[in-house]
Amino acid sequence: METVELLRRLCSTPALSGFEEPMIRLMRAEMSRFSQEVLVDRMGNVIACLPASRAGGPTLMLMAHMDELGFIIRKIEPNGFLRVHRLGGIPERVLAGQAVSIYSDNGRTLPGVIGLKSHHLTAAEEKYVVMPVESVYIDAGFPDAASVEAAGIRVGTPVTYAPFFQQAENLVMSKTLDDRLGCAALLQVLEALQGESIGIRLACVATVQEEFSGRGGVSAATLLKPDLAIALDVGIACDTPDLLGAGDLALDRGPIINTYSFHPRGPLIGTLPNPKLMSRILSTARAHQLPYQLGTFFGGLTDASYVQYTGVGVPAIEIGVPVRYTHSPIEVASLKDLSRTVELLTTFIREIPFDLDLSRG
After folding, report:
1. Which side of the chain, N or C, has fewer Cβ within a 10 Å radius?
2. Which helix (H) or strand (E) holds 172?
3. Dihedral sign from CA coordinates of 14, 15, 17, 20
4. Are the beta carbons of 249 and 293 closer than 8 angstroms?
5. Which of 20, 210, 211, 343 is catalytic?
6. From residue 194, how far is each of 33, 50, 188, 199, 313 by CA, in Å?
7. Separation CA 26–CA 30 (nearest Å)
8. 210 classed as catalytic
9. What is the pLDDT of residues 317-327, one digit of tens each?
10. Given CA atoms 41, 46, 48, 49 in this order, what sign does their dihedral have?
11. Is the peptide bond before 179 cis (omega within 30 degrees of 0)?
């Protein structure tokens, strides 16, 4: 599977949280190439399974989220401009002047731009002020509200950053690398392991609504009753001038294995990895001389944060592909890190024993 073209397709497919249908269709079609057992649950999670070598083996839930952050239209102004709510962790400081895509009820994708007061008429005291989302408006070229509604745009219409994809040597630059990198890795793991005899039942799950609540994958976990789970997401690379000193995580050094994550606002939740699962993954990496980075993630969560509490509890861990400029209109990642993440996962899965013990105490 050609990685760059796969990423280009994934990143150009819109999937605002709650509006993931285009990605659901794409992931179901791609997963069906490698698995005879593919289904979509009621929430919209796409699940593809590879069987264990014999019945009764443990089930691994390997998950990556399909959805992306963006906006919901909240008001149509009489003069045709559009007001929005944020959906997900959109950073307000990047919004002014950004290109967006609006997804109308009639199936059309319409261009728009977030308005920015003309520089020549901006007062000195305004030039360094971030525009709050309550003041944000989208200019989509409509002269009045009637024209907006005739185009199939209404309150509740989804909006995302406009598609952008570019390759620069070993790097890719695009919107939604969080978490289309994870989706690409899911597909490549499935492709690598199809037809192999493995000691576990592998359930690759492309989840919904991670950027909205983090709970979208819970319904899939309830269905699968996994014995262990890996959230495959992104990690924050700290190798740019503005983040030097914040951490040692960098591009081209391999996947990030989280030792701790915590979201300090709202839900107060995160992931403390199962000790035996952490030890086993680290042993796999060291034994095969696979590069990896140990990281912490303060200020965020992944699918694992809620999946770990389903049923009688699920031993879980988070593995991320390093990414620069997370949640911005253009994120940056290394193709080497993606391939090394897939290599670590496939090696780990091949070596999971039928009698895996992740008990505590």
Report:
1. C
2. strand 171-174
3. positive
4. yes
5. 210
6. 10, 7, 10, 13, 28
7. 6
8. yes
9. 999 999 999 99
10. negative
11. yes
